[in-house]
Amino acid sequence: MQRHRTQQGAAHAPATAAAAPPPGEPVAEGDLAGLPHPVRRYLTAMGVVGRPRTRSFRAHLGGRFRRGPGGRWMPCEAWQVNTVDEIARLFRMRLLLGGAVPMWGWDTYRSGHGRMRGKLLGVVPVADGSGPEFDTSELVTWLNDAVLLAPGMLLDPRVRWEETGEDSFRVAVTDAGRTVSAEVLLGARDRPRDFRTEDRWADLPGGLVRATWSTPVLDWTTVDGLPRLGRACALWHLPDGSRLVYAELSLLDLALDDALDVDPGRTVR
Fold first, then answer.
1. 63: CB partners within 8 A, 6+ apart
2. Among 222, 232, 163, which residue's Cα sits nearest to residue 194?
3. If we measure between CA atoms, which residue out of 52, 57, 3 comes closest to residue 25?
4. CA dist 97 → 68, 80, 94, 233, 238 (Å)
5. Which of 139, 162, 131 is nearest to 86 (CA)?
6. What are 69-111's pLDDT values in tens digits?
7. Are 199 and 137 in contact (CB under 8 A)?
8. Closest among 190, 182, 191, 184 to 230, alpha carbons compared
9. CA gap 141, 83 in Å, rounded
10. Alpha-carbon gap, residue 32 to 20, rounded angstroms
11. For residues 151 and 138, what is the distance between their CA atoms, to the nearest angstrom?
């Protein structure tokens, strides 16, 4: 992954935000003191200042998905819950094979462990992956969600930031002794235009392959005066130089701090 440097030719040292305000109290500009300039611009543009720090979100997405190179696109719908007090991610997707046969997929991260499962008709197992590669992959996907959907979740001492260019920064999170990171590239109005990481493994026909993963943002909308993700895609930059776009999703609904009563140990149904 190419790193974008500052004009001085070197990235700044990693930094953390000041202590997060207590639950319910709004984030102040002083809470961003000490963060790199591109990070402060990003957090300000995303409407973090003046609002309570986000502790969870619930999202509903729709679009299309394919399982691998040359695979047919399938309609999909997804629901998820993410939390930060305990870093957890519960993601459920429904695919329609041939436009008619449902297949369900679950991606989860909790207590430092990630898992991916798939069931045809919600009953017949077709995939079940776990282990260190899935732990890392699911944690960095949690980070991706926070950057694009709920940046207020990132005002946490487990998150570190580093400037990599005038319009880019690296963000890292540590959980259960594991650290993952990604580079965020800013576009118009200081909103993210891409998120790139090497802390994910692609599940290819030949097995798991570590590869660069990115989620280019196609457009943003505005809801209640705040930026909200419109559409984004997910793609692999594979070791052979090819690119695999495997998901194109639109955000249909987003509720911040609407999931605090959800037990992260229970898979979203």
1. 75, 76, 231, 247, 248, 249, 250
2. 232
3. 52
4. 14, 21, 10, 20, 25
5. 139
6. 788 999 999 999 999 999 999 999 999 887 778 889 999 999 9
7. yes
8. 191
9. 13
10. 9
11. 18
- CA 74, CA 79: separation in Å to the nearest integer? 16
CA distance 78 to 236: 20
- Give the CA count within 13 Å in the CB-facing half-sphere of 186: 23
Decide: 217 and 234 in contact? Cβ < 8 Å: no
Q: What is the pLDDT of residues 158-198, one digit of tens each?
A: 999 999 999 999 999 999 999 999 999 999 999 999 999 99
DSSP string, 85-149: TTTEEEEEEEEEETTTEEEEEEEEEETTEEEEEEEETTTEEEEEEESHHHHHHHHHHHHHHHHHH
Question: 72 vs 53, 66, 117, 246, CA distance in Å?
Answer: 40, 6, 20, 10
